[in-house]
């Protein structure tokens, strides 16, 4: 059993910081990108609806298009890739995932039908659809950042971009809402130190 000090997962979490300067021109091996995207898709999601789509922006031409959309933030062009994490506003349609379980005999068809009924009921609310898209896609984002760090890459999550321009430039269908851009690459400079509040400020035990 590993001690807290030697724990690999905690080390990766502690090492993840937002890197803004990357080795320009570093081409990430395809297998590393695949491992990072696979980790993203392993994230938990409400009802297992997997409310995400990952738009990978990697060609020089596409990076150049993205740069002004992200208000000129240079990590877009210097990093190896930018992953636009999109939330699925129609994630109720992903309930087809249950059909596999029914076919494999792990889920009774009537339970599947009841679940699908609940989900479609919840998705009558646009507010719910939007909240769930953003909430669930965010777990995938964190997996991207931790998997990347674990493989020796660094990342920067970015909310500083114009979502409407992103949608128009990259033909994002209305089904998806942009949540976050994440640059991934080899760090050329470490992240600027960013402090954290002590646990005594952020933890409430029991009740307020
Ligand atoms: C939702 C979100 C939006 C962010 N947007 C930007 C951004 O547009 N540009 C940037 O350089 N960093 C951005 N950051 C990075 C934060 O500034 C950074 O996470 C925070 O200062 C803590 O530092 P650390 O990530 O290095 O620990 C964003 C982070 C999050 C979670």
Automatic annotation (TrEMBL):
Molecular function (Gene Ontology), one example: oxidoreductase activity
Alphabetized InterPro entries for the sequence: Nitroreductase, Nitroreductase-like
EC number: 1.7.1.-
Nitroreductase domain ranges (all copies): 13-186
Keywords: Oxidoreductase
Keyword Oxidoreductase included in the entry's annotation: yes
Pfam families reported for this sequence: Nitroreductase (PF00881)
Family statement drawn from the similarity comment of this UniProt entry: Belongs to the nitroreductase family.
Protein name per Swiss-Prot or TrEMBL: Nitroreductase family protein
